[in-house]
Specification:
Blueprint: E1 2-4, H1 5-8, H2 18-27, E2 31-39, E3 50-55, E4 61-71, E5 79-84, E6 89-94, E7 112-118, E8 122-124, E9 133-135, E10 139-141, E11 144-146, E12 148-150, H3 179-183, E13 185-191, H4 202-213, E14 226-230, E15 236-239, E16 247-254, H5 263-271, H6 279-291, E17 296-299, H7 300-310, E18 316-320, E19 327-328, E20 340-341, E21 348-351, E22 354-358, E23 362-363, E24 375-382, H8 385-395, H9 400-405, H10 412-429, E25 432-435, E26 438-440, E27 449-453, H11 454-461, H12 467-476, E28 480-484, E29 487-491, H13 502-517, H14 538-552, E30 556-557, E31 563-564, H15 566-570, E32 597-598, H16 603-613, E33 619-627, E34 630-632, E35 635-639, E36 642-650, H17 667-681, E37 686-690, E38 696-706, E39 709-717, H18 719-724, E40 732-738, H19 739-745, E41 761-770, H20 775-786, E42 790-799, E43 808-817, H21 826-844, E44 847-848
Parallel strand pairs: 2-3, 14-25, 15-18, 30-33
Antiparallel strand pairs: 1-13, 2-13, 4-5, 4-7, 5-6, 7-12, 8-9, 10-11, 16-24, 16-25, 16-26, 17-24, 18-21, 19-20, 21-22, 22-23, 27-29, 28-29, 31-32, 33-36, 34-35, 36-40, 37-38, 38-39, 39-40, 41-43, 41-44, 42-43
Helix pairs in contact: 4-12, 5-6, 6-10, 12-13, 14-17, 20-21
Length: 850
Amino acid sequence: MKVPLSWLREYVDVDQGPEALARALTFAGLEVEGLHFVGVPLPESAPEAKVTGLAWDRDAVVVGDLLEVEAHPDAERLVVARVEAGGGVLTTVTGAPNLFPYAGRGPLETPLKVAVATEGATVLDYRQRDPQPRRIERAAIRGVESVCSICSEKELGISDAHEGVIVFDADAPPAGTPLADYAGDLVIDVQITPNMARDACILGVAREVAALTGAALRAPDYEVMAAGPPVEDKIRIEIREPDLNPRFTATLLEGVAIGPSPYWLQRRLRLAGMRPINNIVDVTNYVMLELGQPLHAFDYDVLVERAERAGGEPPTLITRLPGPKEALRTLDLTADDPPRRLDDFTILVADRAGALSLGGIMGGEESEVSGRTTRVLLEAAAWNFINIRRTTRSQQIDSEAGYRFSRGVHPEQAARGNLRGIELMRRLAGGTVAAGMVDEYPRPAPAVVVELPLAEIERALGLAIPRAEVERILRALEFGIEPAGDLLRVTVPDHRLDVGEGVVGIADLIEEISRIYGYERIPETQIADSIPPQRGNPELEVEERVRDLLVDLGLQEVITYRLTTPEAETRARPPAAPADERPYVTLENPTSQERRVLRHELLPALLEVAERNARQRPALALFEIGQVFLPRDGDPLPAEPRRLALLLAGEREPRSWDRPAPEPMDFYDLKGVLDALLADLHAGEVRYEPARGVGFHPGRCARLEVAGRSLGLFGEVHPEVRAAYELPYAAVLAAELDFEALAAAIPDRHPIRPLPRYPAVYEDLALVVDEALAAAAVETEIRDAGGELLRAVELFDVYRGEQVAPGKKSLAYRLTYQSDEGTLTDQAVAELRRRILERLGGALGAELRQ
């Protein structure tokens, strides 16, 4: 925000130099990014902020009286002007278009006050895109000698306006007065962070300066000269969505004369970065910059005409949501732009004939103030900041009003802004103000009161700030103070929407006290509080353990956005698969349309990561641990279970001279990762069952069970899904598992065995079983029959062929027997073998392969 120092001084005395003021504001949270000097000397030492500007020569750049304008005898686009600059009448040749109407009239009855740069002065060359300094020199222009220049704002570095020369107000000082004394200024460019949105106005910055320096804050004048009939007979207000529009005020000014604003107001607007339009619109912008309360002016006669067409009298302003397919032409649209299609959540200002404006953001074309306007209805309202933010993003509108309302403007400020605006309009545009103000306030905002223990300030800051200084700081920031023993009962002013209640409010107030007292004045101290008890975080510890194990297994962790779109998650499902009918948790104010809902699954985002990296990586091994968000019936908050997603794709081993064409990873690579992970976690009994899953290749998908609980599915990604993500790999392997179930299967402690003292006995068994029998079922029976002496079972061969009957297959297992009591004898091993074969034969019909 650009803050002209002359405007700031209307509300607070500023005695510090520019560098000291910029430093104080920056240390208080209002970062000063730049200092633009307008006519006054630039600092000799380089301050921390960026410095720009042009200093005016006090003797050569002065206030002048324009006495007469004549047509140039030899150039149609030039005029000859005579000015009094305090040392006699000077002649200049200029092409300023705003002087042509005075040409040929003879001496002006009332001289115009202008800015004159005499011979030797330095101004900026307005004809260049990047204006550079140039020196005013005596010269003959088409046969007429010019000895000075009447300047535009661009030539003097005030603004970029160069359509005509500056014409000051009639009360400007006498000719010859140094212009720096009259129009010299300093513009402070302040970065307004979201937590300091209350200072997006001149009064807000003045309040900070007053608190920092101890100077008195002067409030604007809100008195109105209202001599017209009651405004209640002229307009009615109807609020249909009080949650979105908690307050709406309206005043009426009749008999206005639309025209340019006085130069003092135009200059302030330009220094603050806004373009003057006319006296009515300029006042709405002026009050917005001054108080932080946006205003909007309607042409009242247009409202009357619309009311008559709709059959209603008097006009009624209605704040409501749009109807189906409703549209509106806003002021920012060009003639070629179509009307704006309105979102169903956008709050409108309308009447019985239709929409008039986007509430809090932008006015509509039909009811705008124009040169024909004679009656102005002024609106000042309050709006739901989340709804305004959502609409500005959806409609892609960047307005000053939307900027402020999207960060929060208290409803109490609406009335003050309206009174200030309507009186300024009366002064600048004439007319009569109707008595009273229509004020619909269905949801009055309650006052926030915080009880601040004085001891808490010292405890939090490690510094004892005197009570008198604490009270001074809070009163300077316009907090109400009521002493109550060892605490202060603090009433939060309405412009401070950032201060909460209870414990949060106490912290907010301590922040305000320390901010104004000076962060740099708070010394480093040792913490005096007791150290809080140290407690473990089992959930985090399990997560970190799983992360470490997966990294050790060669996988790389990724962290993806929790926000996504339903369309993005649909990509992970084959076209013929049923749609995901589960509702999404949606955001009221998404940062973009690509981040508007909370995810149901991790795998779609992991596939997107693979898609972005596929061309640069011959192999990918990724995992993510994160939450998904599933709405629950009857609960405003969704369930947030954790998931573990894994993805493998590409070459199993890096290429080298002895492996010019490495094999691609397949289903068993992913199964091996899961086996190793579960083994290292000492999870319970692990089972794999054939399964079908949406997004997985049929016949290449399995369900993982641990300790009787299903963890989820894993397998090869469906070819149609792989094609949707344009993944060039022969196969993409993926898993999405229930992390909560996995964590529950991990024991707090697990049994360990001492290193074996006696040798193991190894034996291979080749068994013929039915083709449909799962190897896991055979392994289970072998382990049950083998008991404690059977230490390991490993399937090392599967055979189908001529030596096995049709419908049968051969499974070869390597068995490891071992005892902690002594070396196993041949007889003991034979007994174990017999028990195993009998169990397999009786339970599964398995036979020993001959």
